[in-house]
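agent> Task received from the user: take the single chain below, predict its 3D structure, and emit structure tokens. No templates, no multimer pairing.
agent> Plan: (1) validate residues, (2) run structure prediction, (3) serialize to tokens, (4) report one or two observations.
agent> Step 1 OK, no nonstandard residues flagged.
tool_call: predict_structure(input=
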Amino acid sequence: MSEVTGKEHVVSFAEFLHELQKEWRFHQQGGTSYRQKTAVLSLEVARKVREVAPFLERNVAKQTVSRLLPGLDHHRVEDVAKMLHVIAKELYMNANLSDEVKAYVQHKKRNNKN
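)
tool_result: status=success, residues=114
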């Protein structure tokens, strides 16, 4: 399975991978070496799994990272799992916002620019 379905909205693996790549590029432009490595490892795990669903639950994300990268220390496993989880959850939440909430957010963004 390569996508997660919410009510009627879908988060594709391609979209998830794209966001992880954006995160990696962000850290390449001035992030610490630790965060850069975390982003690289997150991409590595995602490419091995090829699904979004395991990262929607924090504990499943940790188990998945531990299983695929058994040589990592506990803190690194936590950080890689967190990066994968936060991005997956954000995409899922954004895909499943109601139209009313989306309109409200856009309205607030416009008002904050003024």
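agent> Step 4: summary for the user.
Residues 99 and 105 are 10 Å apart (CA to CA).
agent> Done.
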